[in-house]
Amino acid sequence: MILKGPICDFVSGYIKENPVRMHMPGHKGRFFMGCEERDITEVSGGDCLYQAEGIIAESEARATEIFGFGRTLYSTEGSSHCIRAMIALALSLYKKRNHGAGLQKPVIFAARNVHRAFLSACALLDVQIRWLIPEEAVSSLCSMSLAPESLRRALAAEKQKPFGVYVTSPDYLGHCQDIAALGEICKAFDVPLLVDNAHGAYLKFLQPSRHPVDLGASMSCDSAHKTLPVLTGGAYLQISSHFSSLITRQQAKNALALFGSTSPSYLVLQSLDLCNAYLKEDYPKRLSLFCEKIQALKNGLAQLGYDIYQSDPLRVVISGKKRGYRGEQLGELLRKKGVECEFCDVDALVLMLTCENRPEELELIREILGGVAEKEPLPSFSFSFKQPVQKISVREALFSETERIPVEAAVGRICGAPVISCPPAIPIALCGEMITEEMLPLFGAYDVDVIDVLTEN
Question: What are the helix and strand counts (H, E) for the chain?
Answer without folding.
Answer: 16, 15
